[in-house]
């Protein structure tokens, strides 16, 4: 018995202190969704005032920044009614969204511009990427169909972002936040105990890092012999590397709330962020050159290293392993 107690005590000393679920919900998830919802609402309002590309690119970038703060969270209200895909349909390997936009502009159907109609359209047409194609394509005049389409897309995005934030609610308000905060409570079918809640959040952290390494960096990297710079995220707007840096920063914040003394994880994430911020290749087009490819691969390796460090350090601190994430099926 004394040996077991001593071993447990040593393990406690070796394991980072855990802030756990409540801090992650109140200090990371809820503020992140509030910022995204606010920025999407601001974009929707800006589109109503002036729907030309020059007026909307700034608000659109602010909304995309907001999404980078929560894009790794694939549980709860964002997974209901296909909202995550309606916000950001990417990767889109068959260019479905681009083809649909061409068809929509050619048809110029006024019914699609009616209030609420965009919510029934294909997710490939909608969201941040639908707006990127409109705002960074050919310029158009006030009063044109493309201008009205920008308004409809921005309004739809604002509604979707607002619905996600409302679905999370506030602590004690009966939303999805309470399902995590009251894990194990009677009647809570989402999380049967506190460990399930910890595992769900830990899975968001790790799969978020996987997505950065495998998709945001892996897709343009391709292979050394066949790089694929045209497959980078948000290439039209020139922000592929910005997405990497912002999403890494959001995941570092999440890791801090889950395990505030996980020093090795924070250091590994900090190294990856520094590499991203110092890489002089905002569109990741440099992967077409061997030296540029190697620089992006070094960043990818740093993200993989941060992921592995978090699995070992934070997983042990929380007493959990990886679970299923909705992004696993993408």
From TrEMBL:
Taxonomic lineage from the root: Bacteria, Pseudomonadati, Pseudomonadota, Alphaproteobacteria, Rhodobacterales
UniProt-recorded name of the protein: Signal peptidase
Principal location listed in the UniProt entry: other
Signal sequence extent: 1-19
Keyword RNA-binding: no
UniProt keyword Signal present: yes
Residues in Imelysin-like domain copies: 29-307
The organism's place on the tree of life at top rank: Bacteria
One GO cellular component, as annotated: cell envelope
Subcellular localization(s) per the UniProt record: Cell envelope
Pfam short name (any one): Peptidase_M75
UniProtKB keywords: Signal
């Amino acid at each position: 018995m004394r040996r077991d107690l001593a071993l447990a005590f040593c393990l406690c000393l070796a394991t980072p202190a855990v802030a756990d679920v409540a801090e992650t919900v109140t200090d990371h998830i809820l503020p992140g969704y509030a910022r995204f919802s606010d920025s999407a609402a601001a974009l929707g309002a800006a589109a109503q005032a002036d729907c030309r590309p020059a007026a909307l690119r700034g608000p659109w970038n602010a909304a995309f920044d907001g999404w980078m703060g929560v894009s790794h969270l694939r549980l709860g209200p964002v997974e209901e009614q296909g909202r995550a895909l309606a916000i950001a349909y990417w990767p889109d390997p068959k260019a479905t969204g681009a083809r649909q936009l061409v068809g929509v502009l050619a048809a110029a159907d006024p019914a699609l511009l009616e209030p609420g109609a965009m919510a029934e359209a294909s997710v490939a047409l909608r969201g941040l990427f639908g707006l990127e194609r409109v705002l960074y394509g050919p310029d158009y005049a006030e009063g044109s169909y493309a201008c009205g389409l920008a308004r409809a897309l921005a309004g739809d995005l604002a509604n979707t972002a607002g619905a996600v934030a409302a679905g999370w609610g506030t602590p004690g308000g009966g939303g999805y936040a309470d399902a995590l905060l009251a894990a194990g409570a009677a009647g809570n079918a989402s999380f049967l105990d506190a460990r399930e809640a910890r595992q769900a959040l830990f899975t968001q952290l790790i799969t978020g890092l996987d997505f950065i390494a495998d998709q945001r960096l892996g897709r343009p990297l391709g292979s050394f012999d066949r790089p694929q710079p045209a497959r980078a995220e948000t290439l039209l707007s020139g922000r592929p590397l910005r997405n990497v840096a912002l999403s890494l920063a959001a995941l570092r914040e999440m890791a801090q709330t889950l395990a505030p003394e996980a020093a090795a994880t924070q250091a590994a994430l900090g190294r990856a962020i520094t590499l991203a911020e110092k890489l002089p290749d905002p569109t990741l087009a440099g992967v077409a050159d061997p030296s540029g490819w190697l620089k992006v691969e070094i960043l990818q390796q740093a993200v993989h290293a941060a992921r592995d460090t978090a699995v070992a350090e934070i997983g042990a601190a929380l007493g959990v392993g990886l679970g299923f994430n909705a992004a696993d099926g993408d």
